């Protein structure tokens, strides 16, 4: 297939990537968890990041979102270098993430968890509550409406008033994704969205990812469930022992002898 035909089939390949990282290195004492790794996420794509256990996938996620600082390397998000930014500043730019074990606040309600995902509210400033009460009330109303729409889309609207601690593991993942959406992000990094989730809910999570993707959101997904990765992703990056092993379409990756060996050799 020519480059022009490939771009027609996958239009996001024609645009600059929403996220591009290169030369990333992270050492933990004597262990090099990420070793000169690179990755790209195309605008509007669903990109997969796979590799055997301990390959460095979560560490790479932590480096991309600056939850930990790289020893070396650079990350460009939406055309800007982001190494000097804090995770919350990166979230404000439009890149948010979820965690392998969903981080929800169990003693708050599902709705309260959603509202915590919203950023830069007028009411966050103590004085604004007194100086601009109408604006604070109106914003809160709009945020609640937005939260309800998102909860409806992830099938949790009936749980809005329940403690988040009452949700199943799969529902917590949906809540974490919903909360990430409160910021109206351009890119979501999902760390193992299907792990520990029952098959029905996995199907629901995949449907939501595809629907949000059709609305223009890009995704980078770490996942061990190969059915999920192969059906969702248009491009897949493979990491092994902290290094890039391969990248390509799902069909290319499934046929790649080095990738098969890395998995079988586990
Ligand atoms: N904070 C840390 N301190 C020391 N070693 C760490 C730390 N975080 C990760 N590691 C090590 O770095 C390596 C890569 O770990 P990482 O969790 O990034 O891999 P992974 O590909 O996400 O694995 P899995 O698929 O099992 O979740 C592993 O050997 C791990 O033990």
TrEMBL record:
Pfam families associated with the record: ABC_tran, BCA_ABC_TP_C
Boundaries of every ABC transporter domain copy: 19-266
Name of the protein this chain belongs to: ABC transporter ATP-binding protein
InterPro entries referenced in this protein's UniProt entry, alphabetically: AAA+_ATPase, ABC_AA/LPS_Transport, ABC_transporter-like_ATP-bd, ABC_transporter-like_CS, BCA_ABC_TP_C, P-loop_NTPase
GO CC term (a single one): plasma membrane
GO molecular function, one term: ATP binding
Keywords: ATP-binding, Nucleotide-binding, Transport
Source superkingdom: Bacteria
